Amino acid sequence: MLRDGSLYHRAPPHLRARVLAELPRESPRRAAFAWGGFTTDGVRAWLNGGLSGIAVCALALSAATLIQRPAPTGSIDQEIVSSHVRALLSQHPIDVVSTDQHTVKPWFNGKVDYTPPVVDLAAQGFPLVGGRIDYVGHRTVAVLIYRYQKHPIDLYVFPDAGGTPAPAARASDGYAMARWQRNGMTYWAITDAQSTHLHAFEQAARAEEDHEENPSRE
Q1: Considering 5, 33, 68, which residue would you say is the last residue of a domain?
Q2: Cβ contacts of 6-15, under 8 Å, gap ≥ 24
Q3: Residue 62: is its pLDDT beyond 60?
Q4: Which residues constitute the domain of residue 183?
Q5: What percentage of the chain carries pLDDT values higher than 90?
Q6: What is the model's pTM?
Q7: Residue 156 confidence (pLDDT)
Q8: Does residue 1 surpass a pLDDT of 60?
Q9: What's the N-to-C CA distance of the chain in angstroms?
Q10: What angle do CA 185, 190, 90 make, to 5 degrees?
């Protein structure tokens, strides 16, 4: 970027005139420096070179600061939106096609470094259709794929990193999103269905997890 000239900035004429106007005038009492030999052309060359160099250094420092600046805390939701859209556009959005939770769950063994909980929500109107592997938040994550009528619901499951909690429910780029945490796991659900349906999905998933953890409650 420093070599292609795109960071070059020429000092405006009024700045050059202002600096020239404030330069000390030649005085008999000041014999230590001969201002008479420092011509206007020399001053102009100094300004062009010096100020341009300062501008380039400032822009380079700003660019380095931007490059080193960490990603915003809330950027994970945009990564999930992008991942969901890529899956919708892909000809292969599901890696393992199955409605059986006991087939989908072991499929992730060796593909991620944790075991994602997989629940069957067909009775609640959200049948499981499979799963896939994706890359979100600088790590490989498990994605469980459910459906509500003709709307896919992607459920991203990964260990809780202990970051700042995001809004429990929100919308982004026309997609409804929900986030919750449970037993050391973070869950992100996203769909193009209405937010009321996604809320029902979240409640059904929570209730089913409660049932599987404590089957004696029924």
Answers
A1: 68
A2: 7/56, 7/59, 7/60, 7/63, 8/52, 8/55, 8/56, 9/52, 9/55, 9/56, 9/59, 10/48, 10/52, 11/47, 11/48, 11/51, 11/52, 11/55, 15/51
A3: no
A4: 74-217
A5: 50
A6: 0.62
A7: 97
A8: yes
A9: 65
A10: 110
